[in-house]
Amino acid sequence: MEERVLLAEDEEKMRTIVRDYFGAHGVACDLAKDGAEALELLRQRDYDAVLLDVLMPEADGFTVCRAVREHSRVPILFLTALGEERDMLRGYELGADDYITKPFSLAVLLAKTKALIRRSRGEGGERLTCGAITLEPGRRRCTVAGTEVELSPREYALLLCLMRNKGQVLSREQLLDKVWGIDFDGGERAVDVRIKSLRAALGPAGKQIGTVFKAGYRLEEGSV
């Protein structure tokens, strides 16, 4: 399977150079010119890694990292011209996995990115289980009673959020913030629609997603 990463960088020349270099080495690279565009692309699909410039218009790299970590453990690598230790520490505190300081070697950037992807896919990675449902976030894999299930990026992010908070009631507003992002301008009906499609995709295990009247949804233990 081809690896695909997202590069958010406001300098057009840098975006093009990195995209072409990664592409020549078998890694597809989608581009975002600012933080807002990066967040939109992240809503549309899953990536194997995210490369974030720190200083970007609309939303800086720290803001994007914080939003991503609300619902995903995708590897994040910061591209930064900032040499101060406090900026690097802030990135790690927000959940970044690594950083590289500009100017950097393209070969080193690619090597770091591939290393993060390999680590995230490791067999010893995180595994979440609730009843018949198992998620392996590093591999973006969902199984029900041992059978792999195909989920859309939004369905997967929603299930991951429920899995990380299993047994807890999450309101529609909380799910919107965590899965769709705080700047999503749609209504809470979007949650109900996606829950319905997620239940259908999970088959008999869909009944583990319980509706709590006037409160929200809760993932419960169950069996198929």
Write up this protein.
- The protein has 224 residues and is an alpha/beta fold.
- The chain is built from eight helices and eleven strands.
- The strands form three sheets. A five-stranded parallel β-sheet has the order 2-1-3-4-5, with helices on both faces.
- A hairpin with a 3-residue loop joins strand 10 and strand 11.
- It starts with a strand and ends in a 5-residue tail after the last strand.
Provide the low-confidence segments as ranges.
Answer: none
Strand content: 15-25%
Principal-axes shape call = globular
Helix % is: 40-55%
- Overall structural class, as computed from helix and strand content, comes to alpha/beta
Number of strands: 11
Major sheet details: 5 strands, parallel
Q: What is the CA-atom radius of gyration, in angstroms?
A: 18 Å
The average pLDDT score comes to 86
Distance between the termini: 30 Å
Reading side by side through the largest sheet, how are the strands ordered? 2-1-3-4-5
Instruction: Tell me the number of helical segments per DSSP (H or I, 4 or more residues long).
Output: 8
N-to-C series of helices and strands: EHEHEHEHEHEEEEHHHEE
